[in-house]
Design brief:
Distance between the termini: 17 Å
Number of strands: 10
CATH topology of the largest domain: Nucleotidyltransferase, domain 5
Strand order of the largest sheet: 3-2-1-4-5
CATH superfamily of the largest domain: ATPase, nucleotide binding domain
CATH architecture of the largest domain: 2-Layer Sandwich
Bound molecules: adenosine-5'-triphosphate, magnesium ion, fe (iii) ion
Strand content: 15-25%
Radius of gyration: 20 Å
């Protein structure tokens, strides 16, 4: 089965072709970050308009790279939610109309299930069950994963997501948008000079809280005006230490509490080198295994959606099944999913 994947939930248009016999054949991506950087964050209306411009050329590119034609596609998987409604509608209406014209079925994919399964696209994928740390721009969750659609929430953020905390802190340091990669780059030259709190480290549960850290950073920033480059780097260093330490320790607690020895990490913050360094060391000490997606599949992409769709072929729906209608789910809880 050849599955076309379509991702348009936020500010990346992603298209990919996944073959259930041969794996990922191709993927094409356009990120809108440069367009939104000027505004310091994603502008939903601009995002939707740009998805419209990109979706067809990217599909042509993905088909060409895989040496396939539209007629070779057996099903279309697309992100139905959660995300920006206008942005989701572009991918959804594109996928549904293409499927209608080709007379092939569609598969509705939950964006976070896409992120969650992205590490399984790599060689030697971990087997179920495992603990998953999902750390993206909008989410910071620990889950027990027993199979596709079998997700038990172990811990969640009480306020900001990890990626959001990176972005907001980067903004306080004048690093622009999106801040995660810029902040972690700056942290490389920073030294241990400040001490920030490690929120909820000893809370006895697997929840996170990152908004207080941002406030502590603001206090440091105010105390050190005008900010010189060295101070900025030292703050970035300590912020990254605080976030990655909390994430690592909670991951290890989740492994201990579930009795599992397999951890997977996904979402944009999963690209963070310091987080990977700490998780690699901690899991090695406990003889556990940790898996990540390749760097480009940590943030939004079409490959993870095509793959999640391929894992849910049983959920395929034809146009007549759906009575020729479709919808998006801007808010959609992962725990509502069921096994295919
Ligand atoms: P969601 O999937 O929850 O709806 P999203 O799709 O916006 O959110 P992703 O694309 O998975 O999130 O990740 C983007 C986030 O990851 C941003 O907050 C970005 O700053 C952060 N990020 C990306 N690379 C890094 C890095 N190297 N270090 C820290 N954070 C990073
Ligand atoms: Mg994005
Ligand atoms: Fe995402």
């Amino acid at each position: 089965m050849l599955v076309l994947g379509v991702e348009s939930s936020c500010d990346e248009t992603g298209i990919a072709l996944y073959d259930t016999d041969h794996g990922l054949l191709s993927h094409a991506l356009h990120s809108q970050v440069e367009m939104h950087a000027e505004y310091g964050g994603v502008v939903p209306e601009l995002a939707s308009r740009d998805h419209i411009r990109r979706v067809l050329p990217l599909t042509e590119l993905a088909l060409k790279d895989a040496n396939k034609t539209l007629q070779d596609i057996d099903a279309i998987a697309y992100t139905q939610g959660p995300g920006l409604s206008g942005a989701l509608l572009v991918g959804t209406s594109f996928a549904e109309s293409l499927a209608f014209s080709l007379q092939i079925p569609t598969i509705n994919v939950h964006h976070l299930e896409g992120h969650l399964l992205a590490p399984l696209l790599e060689d030697n994928p971990p087997a179920f069950p495992f603990v998953a740390l999902l750390v993206s721009g909008g989410h910071s969750q620990l889950m027990r994963v027993d199979g596709i659609g079998q997700y038990e929430l172990l811990g969640d953020t009480l306020d900001d997501a990890a990626g959001e905390a990176f972005d907001k802190t980067a903004k306080l340091l004048g690093l622009g948008y999106p801040g995660g990669p810029a902040l972690s780059n700056l942290a490389k030259t920073g030294k241990p000079r400040f001490k920030l709190p490690r929120p909820l480290l000893n809370s006895g549960d697997l929840n996170f809280s990152f908004s207080g850290l941002k406030t502590s950073v603001l206090t440091l920033v105010n105390q050190h005006q005008p900010l010189d480059d060295e101070t900025k780097a030292d703050i970035a260093y300590e912020f990254q230490e605080a976030v990655t330490e909390v994430l690592t320790i909670k991951c290890m607690s989740a492994l201990r509490e579930t009795g599992l020895d397999n951890l997977i990490v996904s979402g944009g913050v999963g690209a963070n080198a310091k987080l990977r360094e700490k998780l690699n060391a901690a899991t090695k000490r406990k003889l556990c295994k940790v898996s990540y997606p390749r760097l480009e599949f940590c943030t939004d992409n079409g490959a993870m959606i095509a793959f999640a769709g391929a894992m849910r072929l049983k959920d395929m729906q034809s146009n007549t099944d759906k009575n020729y209608s479709f919808s998006v789910k801007p808010r959609w809880n992962l725990s509502e999913l069921q096994a295919p």
